[in-house]
Design a protein that fits this description.
The structure is a homotrimer. By secondary structure, chain A is mainly alpha-helical. Chain A contains 16 helices and two strands. A two-stranded antiparallel sheet of chain A has the order 1-2. The termini of chain A are far apart. Chains in contact: A-B, A-C, B-C.
Chain lengths: 439, 439, 439
């Protein structure tokens, strides 16, 4: 997503050919095809990013212990549903303000989204860009993605309802405000900050919200013992791998759709480059983690490969268009390296991140955002850093406040007995795999 | 799907701009883009609805006990394959009759579908609408969906082959006949019945066929004991959740593709609205079930949330275009409420529906169909009720007859020993999870 | 994929209408829509074929025993990542040589792929066909598919790193060379060999590479005992079924995208026919296996149904466009029959193919390729046989050499203790399902 929703860079270029058939504008219909192509891009991109919600659900269900799987699934489907409602009720209006409440910083809170009337005839339609409903559908999925990132870090010990209340605030308010700073035409976009599809706006933001939660919540019982990290392996690596493949697939929509236009040769060609670069960065992240775990630990680590691929994807998200395939390999590969080193580093800080979401989304997201000036003229490391700090500080502090309020009123952590018994039995009274004996 | 395949509402509107470039029709080529866009819609919509077959398979495999999982998977992939063949051999010809055998009620039974010749040159093509093959592909998936609904209800006790024979009749004859009444231009469409993408034609119809089967088949051994319902929890809620996400994704194709046209600004804008509304209804159904199970039972119930989302989807299917996002939330949310109350109600009637398909597809399907007049001028509750009754009576009675015939000739239920041992060992001689000890 | 990437058959036909709007070429912009439509086809087709990587991963993870699942997942995601890098580094340049090193047989090895510059303005773009990046993205997925086929056959006993080194050679060199013979405009395409989407170029090729590996590697310990085949059932048939559905879905992109053009009425109509035929062949393969296992063994076999569907898909891949739906049913159905008989036949030859990839991809691939002259004028059984033999001999021999070299330097098979303990514990030190007791 470059610039704002309202002024996609490609529109200027496409305006000319669109009417080139006309010798007398009054006589001919406008060219409707760019409108249709771009709307298609939003719809296809949108359903691919929707699919990422399933990817997070499978990844996280696979990486928690079986006694917490049903709860994790409940959180994942519920957070997506809540995001869908909150983004409509408040979020979209905040994110794309017609008029700012605080110039460049905060939009209006009471602009419930409605869609344009049905069945526009060609003659009546304002052929200004693409269907508003398709844009809403696409943007909604990014908001939900931000919330999905949080659920993995806090798994296996957080209470269900406080988590869902946090999700409500995150998707309705926190994400839309920070996203408006860039994609709504706010102060970061004015400054020249560059984050194409959201390495920082979505992924690092979700990571900061998760980090705040992890600090308030504390680590799982028994995770850090006598200065050592106790491994708590995921219960189903097949699901975790499936989740990673789903996320990889969805990312083509995440990055490709963020071109925000597909109705010109230039735009669809850019979308194609983005697909190729996105795939390369994921592959490089996976291979980097594959080789590095072999070299460092003497054994390949599957979960590191999965997270390496995801870190490669997060890394290329800030700029999936301009890099060459070689630069995409470098950017994604460094993302994979980051994961291998950041996971044990977090453990040393006793920040318990169950699925590795902070290394993957926060740290690789920062890396990807800082890498933009390597390939893009007109961007600077300083501006990129300012953007990261602004978003990071805002999301971290507001999240911390919400977590602390939730902790004060009723608490956010399950009891010790519930945690040991497992959240599924203790909180839901149902198990994900009730028939299989557990070890 | 509005009106018939042959006269999509949007064609009239799109006819004008399509030739607007021409000042002299003899000099210029026709505008081929609407044909291509609409064909793309059928293909993308079709592969998304195909994907729903996998969704049903995973949902049902997750909700049965592990001793019946392999059989449930066998049924799901086999029924899709059988539907693909039967719809070609008989169904499509019945559903879209060039000439009726009984006017408005039944088409010809012996019109095997063939596709138009290969490689039409632009000059030769009849640019009347879209590729016939893409329409066939898309419609086929709806036929298969109807059959998928049945398999879940009857799980864990029905014999494999009688089920597959029923599927053959359902997909070859029963579904195509009732669907022709509306989408083939039959008497219901003449009456003004309105069912955009098939809340009744597909979902309630599948539900009625399942209900007839459940009555003939009887409940599982031990399900109802001393006036109480004995819970028989699903063996793999991760799979069930995955199945729900798959169905949610596929539904964008199910409802969006049913616009049946994408080549004008009005049509693609309508498709976009349908995507946004469909997502909202699913989200509302999930949230309704989330809150209601917490309030009613004091504990959140994951399977209710999954079925709530699906009920929201079924509810919006009769009219995903006209409602506002707020009305979509209301319609879908009521769908979620229905599920929470209908599941125990069915149990009181001792109708054993293993996966909750009757509440989700039949009852929410009726609700969605009856809700159409809330948003659509020109429709009436009476006409909607007549349509539901006509389709319900026809599908229920013909299904009942088929089930009774199958029961008379060889039986439809496995032996008591087989049911207790599990269908996988008894019928297939293979298990889904042979290495895991079962509790 | 017919003919070469550079001269798609449809381009000639589409050239005329594309400029038909123009009365004076100098005054009007070129028609950009065919470029956009075809690029979209590559992108959508490409992400569907990407998804097949997940399908292979789930199919194979479901068909191996639980002690080898994590290793199998590691192989699948790693091989895809390696293929993505190797095809960029060497493969694409070999496969589509601007200039041949050996005329019609081998392209240059040092043509690292780069993508065209960003943001082509309409005026500047060479509107010759479609985005090069989209073509690269699409073709890459075929290369990765070839490697995916190999991993299943060799499961449960091959060492991780030798397998990955073989993958490197296969995707960087072996596949691109043989694929260039047809799709790069090499000697097979000159001869009139016909293999639309790769029954032989992809599937049989992958099968030949797998066969060479299986021979060098030998069967699993205990598989063949006292002249009998000992069944080693897959650990998770739900995953295997999911994998099959994923592959079925992805195949619409595999075959449909291989039309290589979507910007004319003729092309998009052909893509539609391909979708319908592909689905029919899969359905027929599944039903054939369903009936045949019942008749032959008295019991339906789920894994045979899954492999039957896949064999149907492989069979129709050589020519998914020209057959009628009825002929697609015949071609795919014979594919399903082949699987049911070929699996035990291989076992008699003591070739241990864990997932049945050789019957599905190699034998059904040959069948599909030999079936082309049944429907296509201008092709001959002799030419088809020559193509199969040329590719088969090349892939088998080069693969055999690579496997033998790998065997000589360090070995390709894990130790007996490792194999019995399971590769997950022995090679990775982690398990896929660590909490479930195994039987």
């Amino acid at each position: 997503m470059k610039l704002t929703k309202l002024i996609p860079a490609s529109l200027v270029a496409s305006a000319l050919p669109a009417v080139a058939f006309a010798q007398d504008a009054a006589e001919v219909a406008p060219d409707i095809n760019p409108y249709i192509f771009t709307t298609l891009l939003f719809l296809i991109g949108g359903f691919l990013v929707f699919w990422m919600a399933a990817g997070f659900a499978m990844l996280e269900a696979g990486l928690v212990r079986s006694k917490n799987v049903a709860t994790q699934l409940t959180k994942n489907i519920s957070l997506f549903a809540i995001a869908s409602i909150m983004y409509w009720l408040i979020g979209y209006g905040i994110m794309y303000p017609g008029e700012w409440v605080i110039e460049g910083v905060m939009g209006p809170w009471f602009a419930i989204t409605s869609l344009e009337p049905v069945g526009l005839a060609t003659a009546d339609a304002a052929l200004d860009y693409a269907s508003g409903a398709s844009d809403f559908f696409f943007q909604l999925m990014f908001c939900a993605t931000t919330a999905s990132i949080v659920s993995g870090t806090l798994a296996e010990r957080i209470k269900l309802w406080p988590f869902l209340i946090f999700t409500t605030v995150l998707t309705g308010i926190i994400y839309p405000i920070e996203a408006s700073w860039q994609w709504g035409g706010g102060f970061l976009s004015e400054m020249g900050f560059s984050d194409f599809a959201g390495s920082t706006l979505v992924h690092a933001a979700g990571g900061f919200a998760a980090l705040a939660g992890a600090i308030v919540l504390g680590p799982r019982i028994g995770k850090y013992k006598d200065g050592k990290t106790v491994p708590m392996p995921g219960s189903n690596l097949a699901l975790a791998t499936l989740g990673t493949f789903i996320l990889w697939l969805g990312w083509f929509g995440f990055n490709g759709g963020s071109q925000l236009a597909a109705g010109t040769v230039g735009d669809i060609t850019d979308v194609s480059r983005i697909f190729a670069n996105t795939n390369m960065a994921a592959a490089a992240g996976a291979v980097a983690a594959l080789i590095l775990t072999q070299v460092t630990y003497g054994k390949v680590d599957l979960t590191m490969i999965l997270n390496g691929a995801l870190a490669g994807l997060v890394s290329i998200t800030a700029e999936p268009l301009m890099p060459s395939l070689f630069m995409s390999l470098v950017i994604g590969g460094i993302g994979g390296v980051i994961v291998v080193y950041a996971v044990p580093m977090l453990d040393k800080m006793k920040i318990d991140d169950v699925v590795g979401a902070i290394p993957v989304h926060l740290i690789a997201g920062i890396w990807g955002t800082m890498a933009v000036p390597l390939t893009n003229d007109g961007t600077s490391f300083v501006t990129q850093a300012i953007g990261i700090i602004a978003i990071g500080a805002f999301v971290f502090i507001t999240s911390l406040v919400v977590w602390l309020i939730l902790k004060a009123f009723g608490g956010i952590r399950v009891s010790e007995e519930s945690e040991i018994m497992g959240l599924d039995k203790a909180e839901l009274g149902m198990e994900a795999y009730p028939e299989f004996y557990k070890g």
